[in-house]
Amino acid sequence: MTSEDDLDRELRRLFSDERLDVLPRAGVETEILAGARRVRRRRTTLAVTGGALTVALLLGAGVIVTDLRSGHEQAAAPPAQPELSLSSTTSTQLPQSPVPSSSGVSPDGSAPPGGAPQTAPSSTPERSSRTSTAPSTSAARSDNTPLATGPVLGPNGYNKLQLGMSFDAAKATGLLAGTDAAPDNCGDYQLTEGASAVGDVEISATYGIVSFQATGARTPEKVKIGSTKDQLEAAYPSLSGSGNAYSASSGTGGTYVFSVDSGKIVGLKLVGSGTC
Amino acid sequence: MAGELADFEEFVRASLPGLLRYGHALTGNPHDAADLVQTVLEKIGSRWTHVQRKTGDPLAYTRRSMANAHVSRWRRLRRESLVADVPDARTVSQPDPFEHEPLWQALRELPPRQRAVIVLRYYEGLSELEIARSLGISAGTVKSQASKAIASMRTKIAGGREVG
User: Model ipTM?
Assistant: First the structure.
């Protein structure tokens, strides 16, 4: 009969057996590299929701002020007053919103909604092409989501939910919906408040919260879905990436991952160090 | 990004043999091992800078990811197999080098999580607490899974010997 020690020894012997060696298939390194690029692209190409389109259009009213970037400490702070008044104006008078015609146009000649300038609208002429460039205008107009005053997906998380927070701790905040089942290995959870700011919160049994997928929420640097590539670059000088996938450190261990399509941000995620 | 991937490429080249071996121990066959290693490395390479910076030890991180991926993949496959064809690498048959090793056979028949616990303990030499953290389960579960695994391996080995 095998004693405990015998079995221990046998297992160790087995695991150091050279027959465990597996020869790598020729060219597999190249395949893995290509695969890594593919995964990166896929991960950052997030779905564009109706809400995102809404936000994209509203952003076009010219309120994104990248110069106003401030420290991360502002992440959870209530929006500044000037933004509030601006946004309420623009969200109700969207079609008439005056925007400087020159600076709001991106280099490729199109007029992305987020490409609006940093200047305050005053005497500049109306841009007539606005409605034609923005999709789903009717749906968007019915939505009164404030502009840059929207919810903030901070450098560590959203509201009380933080990257790395265990499922139990996250559940205890009461912000997560459908928490009857703990993640097996990994699980996606939605917020009880709805999906207007953050769509999915991905929680790993091992690493706790590993990502937040933004819908309407913005970063403290005022970048959100619908912002232009130019705004993204202005907001994050240390931006890395290419093509349609970019990322920037959130400053405190997290990373903002942006997917860009046709010059506009179509996906925004805050990810931590753990993976699923 | 190019530099980043060059660095990752080097990591892949250097760690591939060890990871394949480890994958073999985890999955119980070379095909699944290769598959598991490739899937996990692709994921890790896609966020290489991040993994390097945050974990400090990409190799250990890769191994943990493999253990987790193996356990959860098995779960998923089991669910999917109810409705779809599961591509099974084992149908491409190749002689199992451990065909005549009762312990290997017993190990192979363990449920993936029990097997992962055993591999992490005896292959990686991790403590119960480290295993618990790696697999995202409690230390109590590690203990119970390990003792279940050992008991069932012992039974199988003993049974095999009696039969012949």
Answer: 0.80
